[in-house]
Amino acid sequence: MTERFFTVADIAEMLKVAPATVRSLIKSGELEAFLVGKRGEFRVEASKFDAYIEAQHAKHRQSVAGHAAADTDTHIA
């Protein structure tokens, strides 16, 4: 069965970052999550994690395209 929800630890492991980094992404609103239980532990729905990853890919593509355009502009014949 495919997991529907991930813990902070799950996401940290997948991204190879510290759990504190994941909590920071959640608190900043970059990664959408919700609280569960009395201890208020975060859970991230798989589709929200996928959306975060896609957004990061899109940012990277824009950055690469911007650098390519800048390189082209500096090579005037």
In short:
This protein has 77 residues and is of the alpha+beta class. The chain is built from three helices and three strands, in the order E-H-H-E-E-H. The protein is elongated, with a radius of gyration of 17 Å.
Please specify the SSE layout and strand pairing.
Blueprint: E1 5-7, H1 8-15, H2 19-28, E2 34-36, E3 41-45, H3 46-74
Antiparallel strand pairs: 1-3, 2-3
Describe the structure.
The protein has a three-stranded antiparallel β-sheet. It is 61% helix and 14% strand. It has helices spanning 8-15, 19-28, 46-74; strands spanning 5-7, 34-36, 41-45. The model has no long low-confidence stretch (mean pLDDT 89). With 77 residues, the protein is an alpha+beta fold. The longest helix is centred in the last third of the chain and has 29 residues, at 46-74.
